[in-house]
């Protein structure tokens, strides 16, 4: 008979099981990563000590340049600077598609409601891979037609676009 055990104590296992179920339902998958991301020169992300490659895109190497609008100026590849601008202090959430033996991963990543890989493709700083979703393929075609990013005139070369607007007269 359980009459010598206080009633509140008898309910604890059921309450603990209820909390465990509630937590399991609302916590994201343990393999997903979220937090502050740092952008590597090659367009990969560094998130919680892991290297994350954006899925469905190839980030071609571009010449190093400096963003002089920041203090101190920030230098890196064009794709790196664009991706850092897209993130701008937002938490990045990555859902892995593959986890590599070295701990790195191939993942789809979001900064707020922005799909980072798609954002790079739309601006011409990444190319859609053959297995990419239709939206990526379409965004690449549009970027190419509009001469954006790698599809445009190289910045800093003769006849290229200036780094910033000319000074007022």
Description:
This protein has 169 residues and is of the alpha+beta class. It has a domain at 33-145: OB fold (Dihydrolipoamide Acetyltransferase, E2P) (Beta Barrel). The protein is 30% helix and 25% strand. The chain has four helices and eleven strands, in the order αβββββββαβββαβα. The protein has helices spanning 7-26, 78-87, 116-122, 134-146; strands at residues 33-35, 37-39, 45-47, 50-54, 57-58, 64-67, 74-77, 92-99, 105-111, 114-115, 127-128. The strands form three sheets. Strands 1, 2, 3, 4, 8, 9 and 10 form a seven-stranded mixed β-sheet that branches. Strands 5-11 form a two-stranded antiparallel ribbon. A hairpin with a 5-residue loop joins strand 8 (92-99) and strand 9 (105-111). Helix 3 (116-122) runs parallel beside helix 4 (134-146). The N and C termini lie far apart (94 Å).
Write the layout of secondary structure elements.
Blueprint: H1 7-26, E1 33-35, E2 37-39, E3 45-47, E4 50-54, E5 57-58, E6 64-67, E7 74-77, H2 78-87, E8 92-99, E9 105-111, E10 114-115, H3 116-122, E11 127-128, H4 134-146
Helix pairs in contact: 3-4
């Amino acid at each position: 008979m359980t009459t010598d055990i206080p009633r509140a104590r008898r309910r604890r296992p059921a309450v603990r099981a209820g909390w465990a179920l509630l937590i399991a339902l609302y916590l994201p998958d343990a393999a997903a990563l979220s937090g502050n991301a740092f952008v590597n020169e090659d367009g990969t992300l560094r998130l919680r000590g892991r290297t994350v490659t954006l899925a469905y895109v190839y980030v071609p190497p571009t010449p190093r340049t400096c963003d002089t609008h920041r203090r101190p100026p920030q230098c890196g590849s064009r794709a790196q600077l664009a991706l850092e601008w897209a993130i701008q202090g937002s938490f990045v959430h990555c859902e892995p598609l593959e986890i590599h033996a070295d701990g790195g991963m191939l993942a789809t990543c979001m900064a707020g409601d922005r799909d980072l890989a798609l954002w790079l493709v739309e601006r011409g700083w990444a190319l859609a891979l053959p297995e990419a979703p239709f939206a990526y393929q379409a965004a690449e075609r549009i970027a190419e037609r509009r001469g954006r990013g790698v599809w445009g005139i190289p910045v800093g070369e003769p006849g290229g676009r200036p780094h910033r607007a000319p000074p007022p007269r």
